[in-house]
Amino acid sequence: MNTNASAALNRSRETAASTQSGYVMLLVSLVLILIAGAAFFVGVGGKSVPLIAVAVLSGIVGLLILAGFYMINPNEAAAIQLFGAYKGTDRKEGLRWVLPWLTRSKIAVRANNVISEKIKVNDARGNPIEMAAQVVWRVTDTAQALYDVDDYRQFVTAQMEAAVRAIGSRYPYDDIEHHEITLRGNHEEVGVELRAALIDRLSVAGITVDECGLTHLAYAPEIASAMLRRQQAEAVIAARAKLVEGAVSMVEMALNMLSEKNVVELDDERRAAMVSNLMVVLCAEQEAQPVVNAGSLY
């Protein structure tokens, strides 16, 4: 995130709201309504103005209390406002109550699982690839989620795409020699870096990321066949190089053992011929056909 832009933003901070248990206030409301009803009938029967006034006042207060009730489900919170001013967040479950003129904005704080759309990115080597990510996120600061961004769910989607693009352009898709971190070969490292990037980007909205990773990774269709042929060629070259390396070490060992045990004396020409024959036998794709020499060695 841009540090200057973040510093300019007037960030909200979640605080605990001053609320009451709804069950206690429900009892108070019912008592007031009963008092209002009893006082009204007694006042009307006895033509007592004070009792009628008490009945009207008790009824009004009882009805006002009823307007302040709201429910909070598990893993849910309610942000309280007074004429637009943030007055805190209530996270206590069950029946709750606040003053009727305070507004309540409910927000879920449970975990959300989102899979992004497939997006096309150029990797570190300029190859077009397709990527998609899965992210498990949740709201940790309700005030920031509600008041610091316009729509926190759309904000998560936009930042997911931006983070995936940034990670995709930072690393190559693949490296046959395994000398550097790649998107295909280092899922854990890439996932850790993607999670750190998302946490940093989403912190302005009071959101954290519990888990994330790539769900789709492939070359773009327009180069997929060409890149497949290149991967096959690189694999063949790597296999050949490994085969030649092993063959050379085996030939060297054979020559050293023949020399150490004085099995046969070879001049440079015969040594070169033996090396050539052994390399052919060891590196050939098909089985070598032996030729029996019935004459002398030379």
TrEMBL record:
It comes from the Bacteria. The chain crosses the membrane at residues 23-44, 51-72. Pfam families: Band_7 (PF01145). The keyword Membrane applies. Its main location: membrane. InterPro entries: Band_7, Band_7/SPFH_dom_sf. Keywords: Membrane, Transmembrane, Transmembrane helix. One of its GO terms (cellular component) is membrane. The keyword Glycoprotein does not apply. Residues 67-231 form the Band domain. It is a single-pass membrane protein. It is found in: Membrane. This is Band 7 domain-containing protein. It comes from Erythrobacter neustonensis. The lineage of its organism: Bacteria, Pseudomonadati, Pseudomonadota, Alphaproteobacteria, Sphingomonadales.
